[in-house]
Structures are given as C-alpha cells and as structure tokens.
Amino acid sequence: MESSNNILKELQELSPVLASSYPVPLPYTIPEGYFEQLASAILFIAKDNDLSADEELDQLSPLLKSISKTPPYHLPEGYFSELPENTVAETKAVAFVQEELDDFSPLLNPLKNAAVYEVPAGYFEQLPATILHKVRAEASTAKVVQLPLLKRIRKYAAAAAVALVLLSGGWWFLSSDSGSSTVSSTGIEKVSDDELVHFLEDQVIAPESNNNSVAATSIDASSVQDLFSEVSDEELQQYYDKNSSLIKVISN
Asked: pTM (2 decimals)?
C-alpha cells in the first residue's frame, strides 16, 4: 500500500494529468463470473452438438475435408513379419559375393581397400620449390610472337622490289655513262680539224665571269713556268702541231 502511495506521489509531482487518471483502467475485460461458468458452458456445448466429425469438418473447412485421408507413405504387406528373414538372406548374399570374388580373382580382392588416388612420395615437400622454378622459367623466357605468313611475304616482296629498282638504276646509269663516253670519244676522232674549226666559229663564246678574269689576271709568268716545268719542249711541239688550227681559232 505504501508503494502505491509513493507511485501516486511521484506521478503528482511529474504529471498531475497522469495522477488524476490513476489507476489506469485495463484495456481488456471479461464478463463477470466467466471462469466460474466456463466448465458448465463447455459441457453444454459438447452435449448439444450432435454433428459427426465429418459434418463438423465440413462446416469448419471444406478444403480440409476434400483432402484424401490416405497416408502418402505406406509399407508393403507383411513387411515387419518378413524383415528378419530378408535381413538374413541379404547378409548371406553379401558373404557369397565376397567368397566368389576371393575365389575368382585374388588380385582384385586386395584392391577394394586400396586408395584410388595417390601422390608421389615427398610431393607436398617439393611442391613450393617446383612452383617457384616454373614461375622463374616462364618469367625468363619471353614469348615469341610469329608474324602471319602474309605479312612476312609482303615484307620480302617489298625488299626484293627495292633491291631490283636499285640494281636496275645502277646498271642503267653505268651503261649509259660508258656508252656516251665511248660514242663521244670515237665520234671526235672521226671529225676532221676543219669541221671542228667551223663548229667553233659558229658558236658564241660567252664572256668569262668576273671571278675567272680576276683569277686569270692573278696568274703571272712564274706561275705559267711552274705549270709547264715538267712538260718537255718536244711534247709541246707535238701538241701544237696537232691542234694548231684550233689554237688559232681560240686566240682570235
């Protein structure tokens, strides 16, 4: 009683509104004398109901009534009565098979207890070193990528074409150079001195440039003597006799 008074005082101090509604009424209630009349009420309902179990199930749930009452799992007839005999027969059959296997193949008999899969001796001890060796070997060897056959043929064809062009150009240049020099030398030998003189007379001799004139004036008599010091008088006379007409034209 004192505890309830203490609670009421605390509620009055905290919230006078809650204290005015204390004690709080229960949200759910039962009729008066419910438990006293419960036994007689249940007995009356049980006696007054004359429906069978099927009729009552039909009223409560027609879906449950429509479900077949046959159990989903069942045993053959006489299963438990024949169970000992069947067990003994199966045991004898297994023993018979074992005896037949021993007599038929003594080699296969010990294999039934042998391990199907096995690893070599020391496999797991050598596994880290083996993996490390393979990784290092793969890292040291670079992958060689081969070019397709068509690309290699194109490269070879391009190189051959360039070599052919260079060879043909060099051959043409050398052949044309030697031919022109041969024709010019042989042609000049066949031309007479008079024809050469007439050709030089018809040509317009261009005046020498300033640089050439300056260079010509810078050559003195001593330089000329130095140039012809190694040439004998007989060679000079022979040259003059052969080209006298040409020298006259140039001097004019």
From this structure: 0.19
Residue 9 lies in a domain: no
Number of independent structural domains in the chain: 2
18 Cβ neighbours under 8 A, 6+ residues apart: 11
CB 65, CB 54: distance < 8 Å: yes
Q: Is there a domain that residue 24 lies in? A: no
Q: Please tell me the distance from the alpha carbon of residue 46 to that of residue 240, in angstroms, as a whole number.
A: 169
pLDDT at residue 54, rounded to an integer: 76
Average pLDDT of the residues in 79-96: 86
Quick check: is 30 in a domain? no
Q: Give me the pLDDT at residue 211, please.
A: 45
Question: Rounded to an integer, what is the distance from CA 78 to the centroid of its chain?
Answer: 69
**Domain that residue 105 falls in:** 83-111
Amino acid letter, residue 73: Y
What does the alpha-carbon distance between residue 236 and residue 224 come to, in Å, rounded to a whole number? 14
Amino acid, single-letter form, for residue 60 = L
What's the CA angle centered on 200, arms 198 and 203, to 5 degrees? 110
Mark 201-230 as b/e (b = at least 16 C-beta within 10 Å). eeeeeeeeeeeeeeeeeeeeeeeeeeeeee
pLDDT in tens, 163-221: 788 877 777 777 665 544 444 445 555 666 666 666 666 654 444 444 444 444 444 55
